[in-house]
Design goal:
Blueprint lengths: L4 E5 L4 H13 L4 E4 L8 H6 L8 E4 L2 E4 L1 H11 L11 H22 L1 H4 L2 H22 L12 H10 L2 H8 L8 H11 L2 H4 L5 H14 L4
Parallel strand pairs: 1-2
Antiparallel strand pairs: 1-3, 3-4
Helix pairs in contact: 1-3, 1-7, 4-6, 4-7, 8-11
Length: 220
């Protein structure tokens, strides 16, 4: 019997995009179910992720797996016959997990401060945000990908943020690319992969969403 794979997701979520990239890398067919996470969370989402009540959720043969970084690792372990995403060496795997944890805690949690604040507070937030990218750029070094020659776990986890750059920069009036040119080169290299290009959301769509979201928060 074939695997039944369902993805509960929200189209512009960078965390959902991670999972879509991983599924594409493995060539896995799945059913996509868009979720209204802002206004009307579905009964299926609440049932499959009763703890956090968030997307993405991968449902594999009726068994839910939650949290994007965990889902990507699960996908890599279950469908391990094609395009491995995690390093085979235990230390390198630990390092990959460390940097993905860094991305989640430093980038996502600080991104909103770049456009919800004003004046000196905003300038400080944007500088801190770019500093996080600079550290990741240092970690990348001159390698094609974070794990070396192969596209892997850290790349999957970070590239999904790339399509948000335009929106953050436009709304916050600052530039990530000017400070981190090597990271932009890396992103363009990743975008040459079908799995990435077909999984990332259009940057203009994200920008329009962010403008509307900002308006809904009453932020001028």
């Amino acid at each position: 019997m074939a695997d039944e794979v369902i993805l509960l997701d929200f189209c512009i979520s960078m965390f959902g995009m991670r999972v879509r990239i991983a599924l594409a890398e493995k060539g896995i067919n799945y059913e996509y179910k868009e979720q209204d996470i802002l206004m009307n969370k579905s009964d299926l989402l609440l049932k499959m992720n009763p703890v956090h009540k968030k997307i993405p959720v991968l449902i594999h043969n009726n068994n839910p797996v939650c949290e994007s970084s965990i889902i990507v690792q699960y996908i890599d372990e279950v469908w391990n016959d094609k395009n491995p995403l995690m390093p085979s060496d235990p230390y390198e795997r630990a390092q990959a997990r460390f940097w993905v944890d860094y991305i989640d805690k430093k980038l996502y949690e600080n991104s909103s401060r770049t456009w919800t604040t004003k004046g000196e507070e905003q300038e400080a937030a944007q500088k801190e945000f770019i500093d996080h990218f600079k550290l990741l750029e240092q970690q990348l070094g001159n390698k094609p990908y974070f794990g070396g020659d192969s596209f892997g776990f850290v790349d999957v986890s970070l590239i999904s943020f790339y399509c948000w750059f335009y929106a953050w920069e436009k709304v916050g009036n600052f530039s990530i690319g000017e400070s981190c040119p090597k990271l932009i080169e890396w992103a363009k290299r990743c975008m040459e992969r079908d799995s990435v290009a077909k999984s990332l959301q259009d940057e203009k769509t994200i920008y329009e969403f962010l403008l509307e979201y900002k308006k809904s928060l009453g932020i001028e």
